[in-house]
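ENTRY TYPE: paired fold submission
RECORD: A
CONTENT: sequence, then structure tokens
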Amino acid sequence: MKNVEIYTVNYCPYCHKALSFFEEHNVQFKNIDITHNESEMREKLGKQYNIQGRVTVPQIIVDGKRLGGYDDLIANPDVVLK
């Protein structure tokens, strides 16, 4: 089983879409809601995963490697489904 983490904020429609995708496909995941310390966490994610430019949400991490956001998930669903 893959270790899936998703960093979200509570007002983001793409975060909600990604969470729904995981739930609909029975993907076990850990949701890390960064709404209350968003600036600090975006900076931390940028440094940890060497993200150039603005750090967007959701950020999806699979087995310690950054997949990206919702569009990346939909373009590469097998990364979390297989």
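RECORD: B
CONTENT: sequence, then structure tokens
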Amino acid sequence: MIPKNADIFQNLTPYEEEFIRPDEYPWQALVRFFSFMDDCKKDPSKWPAHFPELDSEKMEGAHGTIATFGRVHVRNAEDLKSDENTEIFGPSIFGKDVKVRKGTVITGPCWIGDGVMVGVGCRIKHSILLPGAKIVYGTRITHSIIGRGALVGSGVNLEASPFETESVRYEETDTKMVELGVFVGDRARISAGVTCGAGVILAPDERIKSGVVLPEASTPKNRRRS
């Protein structure tokens, strides 16, 4: 059985549930989020009235301007702290008290939740990082969702695996996505040097030891059988 969002991500805010709907699969949340960001970029009036108002402040220590529907989308820009040599390419949304360290590159669309810490030299692309997630230095994350309070260790590779002719499948279930990363449940811990195949799903509080290689489209259930 493939976990749904309700099995992986708990205590979602109304903002997060706009994309991460409890009764859907996690890859559907990415599709919904990408579509939402594209629509808002084309027409800013589509930004929901009940969402926090987007800011257009400059981010101290970063290159360029943090602007509403400009290079980057930022919420509460005064709470976003970034070291120098950080590059952020929109559209992306940042929550409160986000810390982005030196040498990191963030390529939107991304949603970086409240209190997230992104370590030195990370690469975050087309992903959602839920509040309190901690990404340690030198990590690569693409087309993924990282759960609330989860930790991703140094040098971990969660990059999306592109498929030239076929989409990622979980047995009989076709995601219809030819590029898919990893879905890390709330409070899960991934130790240093782990490599995950496309579409790996981690349960809340799951622990993955250093150096482990997780096969493509594996779930907590089928990992326990192996």
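NOTES ON RECORD B: The CA atoms of residues 26 and 97 lie 26 Å apart. The radius of gyration is 17 Å.
STATUS: closed
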